[in-house]
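pls ignore typos typing on phone
magnesium ion + seq
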Amino acid sequence: QKGETVRIAFMDPLSGPFANVGQNQLKSWQFAAEHFSGAKNPAGVKFEVVGFDNKGSPQESLNTLKAAIDQGFRYITQGNGSGAGLALEDAVAKYNERNPGKEVIYLNYAAVDPSMTNEKCDYWHFRLDADTTMKMEALTSFMKDQPKVKKVYIIGQNYSHGQQVAKFFKEDIARKRPDVKIVGEDLHPIGQVKDFSPYVAKIKQSGADTIVTGNWGQDLTLLVKALNDSGLKIPMYTYYAGVTGTPTALAAGGDSEVYVVAYGHSNHSGEIGQMAAEFKKKFNDDYYTFATYNGINLLGAAMAKAKSTNPVQVARAMEGLSFKSFAGDATMRASDHQLQQSMFVTKWQKADKKYPYSVENTGYTFVPIKQMDPYVSSTPTSCQMKRPSGG
Amino acid sequence: MRPSSSTAYYQFKPYNVGRWAIWSAFALVLLVAPLVFTSSLSQTMLSQMGIAIIVCLSYNMLLGQGGMLSFGHAVYSGMGSFLAIHTLNLVTKGLPLPVSLVPIVGGLSGMLVAVVLGWVTTKKAATPFAMITLGVGELVWAMALMFPEFFGGEGGITGNRVTGPRPLGISFGPQIQLYYLIAFYTFVCTALMFAFTRTPLGRMLNAVRDNPERVEFVGYDTQKVRYISFVIAAFFAGISGGLAALNFEIVTSEVVSGTRSGAYLLFTFLGGATFFFGPIIGAIVLVLANVLLSELTKAWLLYLGLVFLFMVMYAPGGIASLIMMNLRVAAFGRLKELWVSYLALAFTALVVLLGAAAMIEMVYHIQLNAALGPELTFLGATLNSRGVNSWFGAAFVMLTGLGLFEVARRHFVRQWGEIQEFIEKEMKRRESL
Amino acid sequence: MSDPTYALELKDLRKSFGKTEIIRGASLAVKAGERVAVIGPNGAGKSTLFNLISGRFAPTSGQVLLNGQRIDGKKPFEINRMGLSRSFQITNIFPKLSVFENLRCGVLWSLGYRYTFLKFLADLDDANERAEQLMEMIKLHKKRDVLAVNLTYAEQRALEIGITIAGGANVILLDEPTAGMSKSETRRFIELIKEVTVGKTLLTVEHDMGVVFGLADRIAVVVYGEVIAFDTPEAVRANQRVQEAYLGSHVADAQVGAA
Amino acid sequence: MEFFTISLLNGISYGLLLFMLSSGLTLIFSMMGVLNFAHASFYMLGAYFAYSTTRLVGYWPALFIAPLLVAVLGAAFERYCLRRVHKFGHVPELLITFGLSFIILEMAQLIWGTSSVDYRVPPELSGPLFTLYGTQFPMYRGFMMLVAILMLIAIWLLLTRTRIGLVIQAALTHPETVEALGHNVPRVFMLVFGGGAALAGLAGVIGGNAFVTEPGMAATVGSVIFVVVVVGGMGSLTGAFVASLLIGVIQTFAVGIDYSLMGALGTVGVNVTPETFGFALWKLKISQVAPILPYLFLVLVLIFRPKGLLGTREG
Amino acid sequence: MLKIENLHAFYGKSHVLHGVHFEVGQGEIVALLGRNGSGRSTTAKAIMGMVACTGSIEWNDRQTLGLKAYEIAHLGIGYVPENRDIFPKLTVHQNLMLGQKGKAAAKKARWSFADMYQMFPRLQERQHTEAGVLSGGEQQMLTLCRTLMGDPDLIIIDEPTEGLAPKIVELVGDYLKKLKERGVSVLLIEQKLTIAMAISDRALVMGHGSIVFQGTPDTLRADAYTRKEWLEV
Ligand SMILES: Nc1ncnc2c1ncn2[C@@H]1O[C@H](COP(=O)(O)OP(=O)(O)OP(=O)(O)O)[C@@H](O)[C@H]1O
Ligand SMILES: Nc1ncnc2c1ncn2[C@@H]1O[C@H](COP(=O)(O)OP(=O)(O)OP(=O)(O)O)[C@@H](O)[C@H]1O
Ligand SMILES: CC(C)C[C@H](N)C(=O)O
Ligand SMILES: [Mg+2]
Ligand SMILES: [Mg+2]
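k done
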C-alpha cells in the first residue's frame, strides 16, 4: 500500500450561490490531502482530492456519484447540506449492495442531520462532524452554567435542521436547567425573510434574555443586523456564525454577543494552527473545515491498520478506530459511525494578542471559551447497523 | 398507440412514409442508445433524458400549444415524484402493484394536484396566468420544506425500486433495465402527446392560444380548454416525476422548486416551443448542460447565460427552428451549396469560442484557483493566467476568429438570402400551378 | 310567454359603461329568415348592440330572446351553442392556423366533439367534410393550407364569415363585413354573404349604403342607443329623421347610385 | 400598544423597502410590458458598484455613480439585446432577461468573489434615529424610507409631467404609428429601461449595506418584487406603492400572530391531534407562514381581481 | 413641396412600388386612387420612411429618403394610417396628446384640442374613455385628429372615411377643404371616388405599383378607359 494513491471525490456545490463555501472546502480537502500525503501518514499513501460540482442538489449528487464511480473513485466526501448527504448515503448503500466488490465509502464532513447516524444510518457512511444533537448537547452544557440565561427565545428556519435545533434544545435544556423558560419559538421559511425587525420586535416583547438559533447564511446575518439595529443586545447562541460570509456581515454590525458551538475554532495553535496560517497565506481564505484534517488522518490510520486501501477493509478498520485529531483523541464510534470528538464553544469578539486570528480579515475572531471532552457531547444512537456479511 | 396509422388516410401521401420512418427511428434510437453509450454515467444520463423529454413535452403543451407561460410546472412533476415514491414504499411494504406501474401513479397524482390547483391557475391567461403559477410554485415549494412528514425534510423520501414481484426476472436493479422502462414510457408518452395535438381539444388549445376571444364565439369555453389541457399536461409531468422517483430512488423538495420550473421553461424554449419535437431537443440539451457542462468548466453558468442570450436574439424559434429552416432548404435541394459556408462558420465560430473560452477560463482561474499557481490546462494546452503571452494569444485567437467569422457570416447571409428568395419564388410558382 | 316566431327579439335593452348609458332601451323583433341591416351614426351603439346579443357584454337591463328563449347575461359560448353566431368589425380569426383548421375549429362544437381528446381530428369525417364544404363556399379552397395571417385582407374577411357560419347557427350577426374593401370586391362579397346565409336570419351593420340597400329586407336605424326606425329600405330612405341623423343630404344618393 | 406601534413602523418601513426594490420593475413592467427577470440582478450590481465606488470616492458620490453605471448597462442591454427580441413577443423578452441574470451573476462572482463583501453603512448614517419604547429605530432605515418616497415622486413626475409614459404605452401596440407622429421610440425605450435599471441600482446602493452584499442577494428578492408589481396592478405606480405598504404591514403583523388552524378549530370544538390527517398543516401558525404570505396574496388577488388592486388592465 | 421621383419600395424581397413619380404642391389636395393592393398605402409608408425604398423623395428641397419616421414627422409631414391605429389603452385625450410634438410646438400649432372637439363633438363626449372601446367610426375620427395635433404642413391620409357614416364622410370632406385653406397640403388616399373627386385639385391613379394617370378630377371623369381599367372591374 505504501506509495499508492488514494483518490477522493469531493462533491459539493462549486457553482451557484453556495459556491463560496464549496470552493473553500474543496481547497481545504486538497490542502489537507497534500499536507498528509506520503510519509506524513502512517499508511504512507498519497491522497488526492478531486472536486465534482453537485450544485447542492441531491439529484445532481447522484449524478456526480455515478461520474466519480465511473472514473474509479472509491472514496467520496460531501458535507454541504444534509439533503445531498442523505441522498448520497442512500445511493452509496444501494450501489454497494448491488455492486459487491466495488464498494465505495462516503465520508461526511459536515452534513449534520441526526437521522444519518440514527434511523437512516448506514455502514458505508462515516461522519466527521458532530451532528445537531451533539452540538446541542455541548451547547446546553455550556448554557446551563450561564446564570444569565433565564428566558430563551428560539428562532430558526422552518426546515428539518431548524426544527431539530428547536426540538433538541427544548429537550436538553429541560433536562439540564428546568428553570429556564422558553418564552417564544419562531420558525420562518428558509431564505424568505428580507427583514427580521418584526421578529426582533416579537423577541423584545417576549422579554427574552437569550436567543438560540440554528440559522445560517443570510438568515443569520440579517437576524444579527436587525438585532443590532434595534439595540436589542442579548446573547445569541448559534451553530453557524462562522460560515463563509457571515463573519463579514457580523463585523459590519459592530459588537454583538454571539456564541458558536463547533468541533473547532479559529485560534488553534499547534499543527492545525500552522496549517491555518499556511492556508491563509496560500489561498487568502480561512481554513475552517477542520474535519478535513480529521478525515485524512482517520483514513491514514485506518489504511495502516487494514494494510490496504480497499474500502471494504478500510471501512472495517475505521469502526471503533481511535486516532489523533487536532484536539485530542477522537474515536469513530462503531455503532453509528459518528466521530466522537471534543467540542468547543466560542465567542465572537475583537481579535487581540492572545487570539490574533482575524476571521475573514474583519478584525474579529472566535475565541474559545470552553472545550468539552468527547463524552460530554456524546449522544445515544438508535442506529441498527447492518454490516455486510462476512465482515 | 401510433397516431400515424390512423392519420394515414387524410394526410398528404409522401409525408406519411416519413412519419413512419421518423417514429421507427425514434424507437430505434431509444433502443440502441444505451448499447452505444455504455458507461454508468451515460446510462443514467440517458435515463434522465427520457424523463426530461416527457416533462419538457408536457410543458410545451402549455407553452407552445396553449400559449400558457408557466413558472410552476415543477409542482406537478414534483408532486408526481413524491406520491410515486410514497407508493413505491408502500409496494415495499406489500402493496401489490408492479413497480413498472408506479410512474402511472405519479401521473395520476400530478393530474389530481392539477385538478385542484389548475382550477384557480387557468382562470386567467397570459400574464396573470404566469404570475399565478409563480405564486403557486413559491407556495408549494415553501410548504415542501416546512412539512418533513410528507416531503421528508432535507433528506427527502427515499425508496428502493428493487422490490415487489419480478416478472421475467426484471428487478429494475441494474440501470439498464430501468432505462428500458423509461424508454418505453418516453416513447408511449411522446406518441400520446403527439396524438393529443391531433385531437379536437388539442386543436382548440392552439386556437385559444391564438385568439381566445374568438374561441368563445365558436362555442368553446376557453377556461375549460385551458383547464383540461393543463390537467393532461400535469398527468404527463407526473409520469415523468414518477419515473424520476424510480430512477433516483430519492425525492427531495428540490423537485418542486422554482429553479426546476425555470429550467423546464428555458430548455423547452431553447429546444423550440413552436415545433412538437423542439422540447425533445431541449430536454437532451438540459441533461447535457446540467451533468456534463458543469463538469467541464466552472464557468458553465456563464456559458449557459450567453447561449441563451444569443439563441433568443438570433434563433428565437429555438434549435428546432434552425433545423426546420435547413430542412426547408434541403427540400428545395439547395442545402448542399451551404456546406462550405457551414463549415467555414463552424470553424471560425470554434476559433472565436476557443479564444473567448481560454480567456474566460483564465479569469475563473485567477479568481478561484490562483493559489494553485498561475498555470491551468485548457483543452490540453497549458495557459499561464498571469502571463502576457497566454492572454495575448487567447485574445489574438479570438479576434482573428471574430474577423474570419464576420467574413464567413457575411458570405453566408448573402447566400442564405438568395436561397430564401429562390424558395419563396418557387413556392409562389408552385402555388399558382 | 314570448313569441317564438321571432328568431331574435330585443326588449327594452339597456347598457351603461360607467355612468354613460350607451344603449337606451332598444327594442327590435326580427323574424326568422329575415335579412336586416342595422345602420346609424358612428358611436350610436350598433356594435355594442351586437356585443350584448352575442354575450360579449351583459346588458344592464332588458331582455334578449333567441327563438323565444332568454339569452341575455349568458356567456358567448353558451349563446353560440344555442344557435347564434357573429363576426367582428375588426378581423378576428386564428392567425397561426391554416384556413382549413380555422374552419374546422368553427365546426367542431356544433358536431358534438366538444373537449374530446380521445378522437383524432383526421377521423372526424363529418367535421372535415363540413370544413371542406365551407371552404368551397367562401372560395378559399385553393388556400386550404395557407396560414390565415398570410391571406389578403379580403380573404381574411371571407374567412371571418366562414368561421361565423361554420357552426351552422341560424342567426348570424355581421359587423361591417365589407369594411376596407373596394367597390368591386364589396359587390362580390355581398353575393357571397347572400349565398352562404340562405334561409338564415341575418343582421348586418353597414355604412355602405350600396350594401345596405342591396342586401336588406328591412333596415333598423339605431340612433343614440335606440332603434328609431325599423322598416323596409324604401321607407327608411324616405324617413326624414333618418336622413337628418345619418344619411346626410346628397352623399347618400350619390353612393346608392354608384353601387 | 407598544408592540402595535413598533410593528406598524416596521411594517411601513419594510413596505417602503419593498417599493424601493420594485419601483424600477414597476416602471419597466408597466410601461414596456417586459417581465424583467434581471431586475434583481441590477439591484445586486448596484450594491457591488456602490461597494467599489465607496472605497474609491466615498459613499455619497457612490450614491449617484453606482446607479448611473447600472443605468448605462441597462440601456446598453436594451439597445443591443432586448430591442432585437422585442418583435418576437413577451416570452423571448423574458427569457433574454433570464439569460442576462445568469451572466450578471457569474460576472459579479468573477469580479467580487463568491462571498459577501464588506460594504458598510456610512458612519454618518449609522446609529439610531430615535428610540421608541426602548427600541431603536435605525437612522439608515429612515434614510431608506426617504429614498423610497423620493423614488415614488420621481417616477410619478416622469409619468405625469412627461409624455414618455404615453409614448411607450402607445408604442406597445403600434410602434410605427408612434414614430410617424414624431416620437423617437427606440430612444425612449432605451431611456426607460436604463431608468428602471438605475432605480434598481439605487435600491442596491441602499439595500446592499442595509442587508448583505453577496451573489445570492439577487435571488432572495427575485420573486417577491414581482408580487408587488402584480398585486398593485400592472401599469399602476400608486398600485405598486399601496401594495408594497400593504404587504409590508400585513407580513409584519402576521409575524406577531401565533394562531393556527388547529387553534381555530379547537375553539369551535374540533380537536386536532397529531394523528389527524394533515396535522402539519393544521398546526401551522400564521407567524410561520408570514414571509410567504405575499405569494398567497398574489394568487388570491389574481383570482379575484386580476387587474390588481389599482390596475386598469389584465395583461 | 413634396416631390417624388423614381420611387421603388420593397417588403423584404417583394418589390411593390416600381418607379413612382409625382408632386404635391403647397395647399393642394391630391387624391391618390387605385384598386386594393395597387400600392397606395405603400407609397404613403415610403414617404414616412416606414418601408425600405430607393429613389428620391424631396420635401421642401430636402432629401428625406433614409431619414427615420420621427425625423420626417418633425419636418412637417403628418400621416394618418389606415386600419385605425389608435392606441387602445390610452384615453382619447391622451391619444391626441401624443399627436403633439412637444410643448413649444403645440403653442404655435394651427390646431388645438378645442378645434378637434369642435370638429367631432363625439370625441369630446368620450374624451376620457379608453380609445380601445370607441366605436369604429369614432376611432377613425380620432386618428385623423391625432395627426392634425402635430400641425403638419402636408398630411397624408389613408382612407379616412372608412367606416364613417355618410353624414360624417361629408364632414370630413369639408374639413379637408378647410385644411387646404390654412395652407396645408393633403395627399388623400381614397376608395370612395365620389368624395375624392369632389374635393381634390388633382387626382393620381395607381396601378401595379406605378402611377398610371395624373390629371384633374374632370379629366379623370372623362377618361373612361382609365376608370374602367384601373379603378373598377
Ligand atoms: N366597454 C366600453 N366602455 C365604455 N364605452 C364604450 C364601451 N364600448 C363601447 N363604448 C362606447 O359606446 C358607444 C357606442 O359604440 P359602438 O361601437 O356600439 O358604436 P357603433 O354604433 O358600432 O359605431 P360605428 O359605426 O362607428 O362602429 C361609443 O361611443 C363607444 O365609445
Ligand atoms: N407588410 C407587407 N409585407 C409584404 N407585402 C405587403 C405588405 N403590405 C402590403 N404588401 C403588398 O404590397 C402591395 C401593395 O399594398 P398596399 O397596402 O400599398 O395597397 P393599397 O393600394 O393601399 O391597397 P388597400 O386598398 O388594400 O389598402 C400588395 O400587393 C400587398 O399584398
Ligand atoms: C451550509 C451549511 C451551513 C448547511 C448545514 N450543514 C446544514 O446541514 O443545513
Ligand atoms: Mg361599430
Ligand atoms: Mg391601403
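The interface with chain C takes residues 35-37, 82-83, 122, 126, 129, 133-138, 140-141, 159, 162-170, 191-195, 232-233 of chain E (CB under 8 Å). Chain E has a mean pLDDT of 87. more later
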